[in-house]
Amino acid sequence: MAVPIIIDCDPGHDDVLAIWLAAGNPDIDLRAITTVAGNGSLEHTTLNARVATTVAAIAGVPIAAGAAGPLTRKLRTAPHIHGDNALGGVELPEPTTPLDPRTAIELIVDTLNSSTETVTLVPTGPLTNIGQLIQEHPEVLPKVERIVWMGGSTTRGNMTAYAEFNAWVDPEAIDIVVKSGIPFTMVGLNITHQALITQDVIERIAAIGNQTSAFGVQLLRFFNSTYEAAEGMSDGPLHDPITVALLADPNVVESIESHIDVEVNGTYTAGATCIDIHDMLGQPNNVTVPIRLNVDRYWDLIVDAIAHLR
Ligand code: RIB
Ligand code: CA
Question: 254: closest CA among 206, 306, 187?
Answer without folding.
Answer: 187
